[in-house]
Amino acid sequence: MQKGLLSARFRTVSVFFSIAAATAAIPTPALAAFPDKPVKIVVPFAPGGGTDLVARTMGIAMGQELGQPVIIDNKPGAGTIIGTDAVAKAAPDGYTMVMATVAHVVNPSIQSKLPYDYEKAFAPVMLVGVSPNVLVVRTDSPLKSVKDLINAAKANPGKLSFASQGAGTSAHLAGELFKNLTKTNITHIPYRGAGPAITDLLGGQVDVMFATAAAVGTFVESGKLRALAVTTATRSSSHALAKVPTIAESGVPGYVADSWYGLYVPAGTPADVIARLNAAAKKAVQTEAFRKRVEGEGLVINGGSPADFDKYAKGEEARWRKVVKENNITNE
After folding, report:
1. Which of the two ends of the chain, N or C, has the fewest CB atoms closer than 10 A to its terminal CB?
2. Which family is annotated (predicted)?
3. CA distances from 148 to 107, 114, 151, 228 (A)
4. Rounded distance, CA 231 to CA 247, Å?
5. What is the DSSP code (8-state) at residue 47?
6. Alpha-helical segments (H) within 37-80
């Protein structure tokens, strides 16, 4: 009798531990299943610009790390608002990200109304890196320096034009800040991305462009465009831009207008999914292919935590809000 009781108890204990072991082996649903289908990075610009280049180069390496393809989805328009809004309204499951730029934190200051709540609609994943904007002209342009541009703009108010990849972008702000500090009148021509803007610059439809280094680096190296200056406080560490002066040292003291790239997901995305995306993004920016493609064009790679990016973005939003107000910058 006692032997039978002990045997029954043993079987009961064995079943309990078997169930416990099986339960412990089941991972948390969000992380276990993620990703089980392709992940999408929305680029809120037309193909061919710096943001597109960074996203596509990153996407290849992230896809290898995640074990699923990373698809680039270009949704240009309205100074990045169309693409950004699409991500704000996407399911918070980690399968849709946006490659944001400085326009992400500037739009709240220059737009009276946005279709999303800037402060509540997104969760940070990672700051990819920071790079200079570059003031460029065609190689056959008579403008050989920043001083030449200032003199020509003052001699012909409103006749010179500068291109940007959209209102509120770093290129737009760089141009508006330049106009304000130099007391010049240069007409802003916004495009749906850096690619179309560069095409018109090369074709002579616009005179100058304050472009991201990633967008125009190859054109400068190939001799199709001439770099007059960089917009950062110090000269670029990039080989291609190392000899290019800053706008500040070219006669516009106090001028600084750099650009950056960072990944966001919709707010409400599970923390473990964000951590998975952050880990994949960190590995992607450290790959030789990514470094070789972007560091030569002045991008200083970051690759920190979501909290680091959140702090940086909030600082940028406050800095540019002040610049926008002081310089009366609006979305044209």
Report:
1. N
2. Belongs to the UPF0065 (bug) family.
3. 31, 39, 5, 10
4. 6
5. T
6. 50-66
Task: Report the C-alpha gap between 202 and 200 in whole angstroms.
Answer: 5
Tokens of 215: 């967008």
Q: Count helices and strands (H / E) in the chain.
A: 12, 11
Would you tell me how many other CB atoms lie within 10 Å of the CB of residue 29? 10
User: pLDDT tens across 169-211, in order?
Assistant: 888 989 989 998 999 999 999 998 889 999 999 999 999 999 9
Q: Which residues of 274-296 are buried (b: 16+ CB within 10 A; e: fewer)?
A: bebbbebbbbbbebeebeebbbb
**Four-way CATH pick for 133-250: 3.30.9.10, 3.40.50.1980, 3.40.190.10, 3.30.365.10:** 3.40.190.10
pLDDT in tens, 21-46: 444 444 444 456 899 999 999 999 99
End-to-end C-alpha distance for the chain, whole angstroms: 91
CA 83 to chain centre: 13
What is the fold of 32-130+259-327? D-Maltodextrin-Binding Protein; domain 2 (3.40.190)
